[in-house]
């Protein structure tokens, strides 16, 4: 790789790694477009979840791009995504029986070679695949392609981790909001009945079960004085 192309790859890798991938569809589109422009081949990218490939994006001439969806079905793209391993084929005519529909479309469009690399998140989990389609005189730089795929996978994994952290934060906030009135209600009932805190909690829980209400709903009613100690009976 010449210095100029190395700089281009480095800049593209950085751009893909820092992209906002909370919505992975635009990130896949940027990966495909970057691979097409930088490597000079038709490119496609897709995600995989529970064994199903989806969200296919492509960039390049219309003819070869028409073969990209088939490549992510029973083709090299789908195989790389599902196996987590590169699938490299410089001569598709030798793989007609392996990928019938894809090879037929690819050869008709002038594509003779296909290279698929897994897209992995920062944790190493395979989240999709990058597909490259070329002609007889077009062999892509697979080292550069792997860098681009890795950068996109890292961005997707980072976004997923942010989503997980945000979900946990919201769950903790919800739990705290529901817990505060329960603790307040335990104190109110304890003061009203002369029972200990644990026994007061037992009254709350028994009342909630009998009425089919949530514990937080009953607790809020106690704190607001909408129900009094006379309505409570032990478990």
UniProtKB/TrEMBL annotation:
PROSITE patterns associated with the record: ANTAR
Pfam families on file: ANTAR, GAF_2
UniProt key word Transcription: yes
Domain ANTAR positions: 162-223
The entry's keywords: Transcription, Transcription regulation
Protein name, UniProt field: ANTAR domain-containing protein
Species of origin: Pseudonocardia kongjuensis
